[in-house]
Amino acid sequence: MKLPKNALAGIALLATATLGLSACGSNTTTAPGSSESAAAGDGITVYNAQHESLTKEWIDAFTKETGIKVTLRQGSDTEMSNQIVQEGAASPADVFLTENSPAMAQVENAGLFADVDKATVDQVPAEFRPSTGKWTGIAARSTVLVYDKNKISDDQLPKSMLDLAKPEWKGKWAASPSGADFQAIVSALLELKGEAATEEWLKGMKENFKAYKGNSTAMKAVNAGEVDAALIYHYYYYGDQAKTGENSKNVTPYYFKNQDPGAFVSVSGGGVLKSSKKAADAQAFLKFITGKAGQEILKTGTSFEYAIASEVDANEKLVPIKDLQAPTVDPAKLNSTKVTDLMTKAGLL
């Protein structure tokens, strides 16, 4: 059948546009569950539960240095880890990055991580990576109690996070129990104090706290006078202060220190999937973000997470990580499944 000239022109125009689109940009972002995969062509695919802006900065610098393209799939810790476990050996992911350790432990326990290259492991101090060597720390965040300094005096601050379960704190503090951030804190409590103590604390928490959706919302509630304090991670405060400060002007961060469970430092993780068909490139990416260049991006960026590797100091606005007096917790032992079971039993989820 002979096609009209205008139809042929349309097909040619469509083909040209398609070629032009495929040539634009070296890195792409896709939603969780998308069928697009860099593993089928050039480059690697990263399942990302870290801050998207931070990971994009890492990717741009990595691609500029190595020429290796990266496809990014964005989601939450739990969403991404569950997807990887469901996909198993057929996962198109080459690298998995998280905000908190329990999601990494879930994938590790499913036997889906390859060993991290020794050169990468050597860049990260032992306290910021799991004892198993199946993944590594890439950044960190500290637990803090942000409080309204007009409502709580220094002598009224809790000596321990465990004190928040006491009757005197009823109705005075907030948290976001449904988020992976808070569940990581509870996971550390479980590892440090055991199941009975964790169950008791969660019971007291249920009686005392006010629930909010998200850490920034909980901090905003403190700032607005809705509640006296909130248990969150430090970077929400510093991130807001670096912008307008409108959600933190009445807020002060309090660090528990003294190896208290409330001084827990959560390790953000990175690992290479055993099923990766681009293992060398995937390992190179992990080495880059834990290397000096990658950690400098973290230090000077807007996430305000702690740089932890390659002897790069944290952002100067943060409390030095050595002064946090955090408890020792092996990230490989954080158990998200047990935590959600306990929190559900306590009526928090």
Q: Low-confidence spans: pLDDT under 50, at least 5 residues? A: 1-26, 31-40
Number of helices: 12
Helix-strand sequence: HEEHEHEHHEEHHEHEHEEHHH
Total strands: 10
Largest sheet: 10 strands, mixed
Q: Could you tell me the strand content as a percent range?
A: 5-15%
Shape: globular
C-alpha Rg (nearest Å): 22 Å
Mean pLDDT equals 90
Question: In which range does the helix fraction lie?
Answer: 25-40%
Structure class: alpha/beta
Give a written overview of the molecule.
It is a single chain. With 349 residues, the chain is of the alpha/beta class. It contains twelve helices and ten strands. It has helices at 5-23, 52-66, 77-87, 101-109, 118-121, 180-193, 195-208, 215-223, 234-242, 279-290, 292-300, 336-345; strands at 28-30, 44-48, 70-74, 95-97, 136-148, 173-175, 209-211, 229-233, 251-254, 265-272. Strands 1, 2, 3, 4, 5, 6, 7, 8, 9 and 10 form a ten-stranded mixed β-sheet that branches. Helix 2 (52-66) packs antiparallel against helix 11 (292-300). The longest helix has 19 residues, at 5-23. It is globular, with a radius of gyration of 22 Å. It starts with a helix and ends with a helix. Residues 1-26 and 31-40 have low confidence and may be disordered.
SSE topology sketch:
Blueprint: H1 5-23, E1 28-30, E2 44-48, H2 52-66, E3 70-74, H3 77-87, E4 95-97, H4 101-109, H5 118-121, E5 136-148, E6 173-175, H6 180-193, H7 195-208, E7 209-211, H8 215-223, E8 229-233, H9 234-242, E9 251-254, E10 265-272, H10 279-290, H11 292-300, H12 336-345
Parallel strand pairs: 1-3, 2-3, 2-4, 6-7, 6-8
Antiparallel strand pairs: 4-10, 5-8, 5-9, 5-10
